[in-house]
## 1
Amino acid sequence: MTTAAPSAPAIAAPLVWSTLASLGTQVLGFATFAILARLLGAQTFGLVALAALVIDLLLVISTAGINEAVIQRRHLDEVDADTAFWGNLAMGTAFCITTIAGAPLIATAFHQPALSPVIMALAAIFAITPLGAIHTARLTRDLRFRAVASRNLIAALAGAIAGIPLAFLGFGVWALVAQRIASTAALVLASWWSYPWLPRLRWHRQSLIEMVRFGAYLGASRTLNQLNIRAAEMISGALVGPVAVAFIRAGSRVVEVVNQVTYMPVQQIAMPILTRVNHDPAALREAYLKLSRLSAFLMFPAFFGCLAIAPLIVQLVFGPGWEPVADALRIFTLAVVASQINNLIVAVIAALGESRAVLSWTGAQIGLGIAAAVAVAPWGWQAMLLTGVLRGYLVLPYGFHLLRRHAGIRFRDVLSSIAPALASSLLMAMAVAAGLHWSAAALPLPAMLALCLPAGALVYMAAYLWQDRTILAQLAAMIASRCARAGA
């Protein structure tokens, strides 16, 4: 059987379920993270964060971009899917064995002997993840985000059930290891349940070559992007120690929650939807700008709101001993504009099949980012994080060049789509910061948040709609599309 993507992109239904998946998963996952952080402390978290950093970087390489190739292919037959499954599994198994063998060397490089057994245990993820990767890719390709919502929630719940009791029982780092492995295994099982496809033992050499040829550039790009994002963690782990890594990781975890709830639903549907119209320049431009406007509308107020209340978030979520996380949170939120633009540029270029351009785009950042982070390392991890933010903005002109060259989308069109959200979010952040300053001595923390957050939301919406009401028509069209599909 051959599956082909429909020609017309329907944003509403997949966005609803993608949002539900992100919201439910992140609420549960972050609650688990906060509980474990309070129970285990920064030193334990930092050690596991270092191990997870290594695993996450290698995990991106181990897929060779095959999952993205499955999503991007205009026609996918069962032989292609079988080939992708076994190719992924072979790569994952090889990386599992190699990582176990190399764990002592990695621990030595970070001057943390206790890191070796943690990396060895987490290496099991390389062998587990490929068992459900192509099932997930096929769900994504078909825009079946209701299934994705259930799958991700089950995985997050499994991680909580495994990790929290072990932390209470005093297992330390192994509580975090168990959480990660249990979540990965549950994700695979839920993927098979959501997409009951049994791969056959067959292999098509040319199909694999084509997928790897396309996916290798995306895989390398994603690896470089992870290096860009997490360079400060790597360098801090080697030069400062696990506690600094814990502070950075805690700040980035808060940002991940905000990103997952606001932008990730759009990102998950961006490439499949843009792929469906990659043969029609006008439709591609229209879909891109709709996604840009919508993601900015959702992202910018959430991130600038976090910037305004960063110390309160840390106090409420992590408690005493985690105060430096507020610095990390503030710095990460400053990158929101560049991040929103960069990620959508990557999505549209990948949807056009220009994976080599994606690699050149990401490669333009890696040398600059790592060199800058090393140069400012003597000034501390905060300075390293700031260089990462600055790098994201410095490479934007090249990203706009790629966007114009490959998709015919102009800088001023992108700027027009995000300007109302940016201006409104800045105004909202200033209003919230002023409100918190005024009420700091008079009100307890919960009361301050209960007062300032709704007020900030009202300021944002009023300022946004004063500038542009296009988003209302876009949201109304999405709701109407969703209702029509439900009725059908």
## 2
Amino acid sequence: MRQLSPKLLSWASVLDEQTRAQATTTSTLDIVQPHLALMPDAHLGKGATVGSVIPTDGAVIPAAVGVDIGCGMRAVRTQFTAEDLRQRAQTKPMADLRVSIERSIPLSAFRHNKQVEETALPRIAELEELAGDLLPTIEERSGGWRKQLGSLGSGNHFIEVTLDEQDRVWLFLHSGSRGVGNRIAMHHIKIAGQLATEAGIDLPDPDLAYLSEGTDEFDAYLAELTWAQRFAALNRDEMMERVVAQLAWWIDESVEIAEDINCHHNYTARETHLVDGVERSLWVSRKGAINAAAGVPGLIPGSMGTASYVVVGKGNVESLHSAPHGAGRQYSRTKARKAFTVDDLRTAMVGIEYRDTDAFIDEIPAAYKDIDQVMADAADLVEVRHTLHQVVNVKGD
């Protein structure tokens, strides 16, 4: 860990100047207390850096939560082994499993379920009940949110069949609150900006506008944020149920779940941390970071062709009980498409069943930081429990 400025601590050994400058700027806000913690996977983001932990006193910065509210991961360990997969693949290709998953879950941006699936009904009922009087507002943000439940999205979101260090089969997926979460986030980022302008608040970046506790705007954001975070968790649950069903179909045997881990990495929560040696109740926004309090399980994926990790938090105080959420980009999507080819991607994905398309060039492992270096940087934040390697990868365009 290095102290880069009075209120900026960094665990990133690979850090470009733009990202460092953005994090430094955010840390100078008076509401940021006691300091901003920059994770090993940090890279440039909207307003606030992706891969940062931003504790705020009496306010929340919507852009510091991110536009994919509640984005996170879920992983389950099954009773199967690599040998079970090899045996089955002799009579039914692994590609059949990938295609069946792709058919059961809508992939890519703006793609949703054509109709509400029966498995989604109890989850939708829970979300309607959670919304209560807020439901008309949610409908206003996105009238099609019910059909979004159980859809993956695009970018770095994925569904994978993986093997751990003991050759045990895990199912692993990464997604968030889809279009409804994005619209909630963008609405409140805009509101925060308008309030800052009206109040004459001088901000180093307009996207660092915040909502103060005790205001109607703050309460409205927290209510919608809480709902979107739950939507994201249930979205992962719905997808995992379908992935489990497809694995059961492919392998022709019921799936037993031995371990189950679910965690957010774009969210805010009320937590108690030390400020000048005194415990204070703060709003902690983790934008591309996971909760790594002592004993808390977590998930840190690499890229589509590298290792992912099942971890447990060490409760590091200076990191505000946090850890990285993944590898973190080194190349923007535009730069990655200029730097790499579809043949480069094929080379990186040897041995992994995936959809061979140039749509994924910007997701090539080389566009991301070295996950092994990220994990080395995070050695005092988490303990590695399992190392996972993909055998099947599913992504959206």
